[in-house]
Amino acid sequence: MYFPTLFIHSWLRWIFLIVAILAIFKALMGWQNNKAFAKADNALGGAFIGLMHLQLVIGLILYFGLSPMGYALFGSEGLMKNSVMRFWAVEHISMMILAVVVAQVGRILSKKAPTDLLKHKRAFLYFTISLVMVLSRIPWTESARLFRLP
Asked: For residue 34, what are the CA distances in angstroms to 29, 38, 106, 149?
């Protein structure tokens, strides 16, 4: 089960990144052009948050159940001194959880904003911060991890 789940988690990242860029761009255009907050804006924000939550759930399944890395590394000696082990055991999961929280708070604040302009602005700011957090903890230097094949 580990490899199919890891494959899904890895490839779902690309769908998430595309939706995230679209949601952020649409929020920016709505904010800058003072557009009405339409159903499409709400749906795109919902898709962004939904994909983040799905990625988090799959990641937690990997972390706590299926992966030989992650939670299993906590008994390892020198965990915090080894940058690769620390990345997978602590940094990746911690940043992703925080990114989901930031995005979810932004979505809630955006939906509750009194004006359309403020809805777009809040969505743009929080979604962008969340995406930067996610991008900071994707293992970009490990090219084999970017496009996993079954």
From this structure: 8, 12, 19, 43
pLDDT, one tens digit for every residue, the chain (150 residues): 988 999 899 899 999 999 999 999 999 999 999 999 999 999 999 999 999 999 999 999 999 999 887 777 777 888 889 888 888 888 999 999 999 999 999 999 999 999 999 999 999 999 999 999 999 998 877 766 666 765
Q: Cα–Cα distance between 44 and 17 in angstroms, integer?
A: 12
Please state, in angstroms and rounded to a whole number, the distance separating the CA atoms of residues 38 and 109. Answer: 16
* Virtual torsion, Cα 6, 11, 13, 16, nearest 10 deg: -140
> Reduced to 3 states, what is the DSSP secondary structure of residue 121?
helix
Alpha-carbon span 119 to 12, nearest angstrom: 27
Locate the domains of the chain by residue range: 2-146
The structure's pTM equals: 0.91
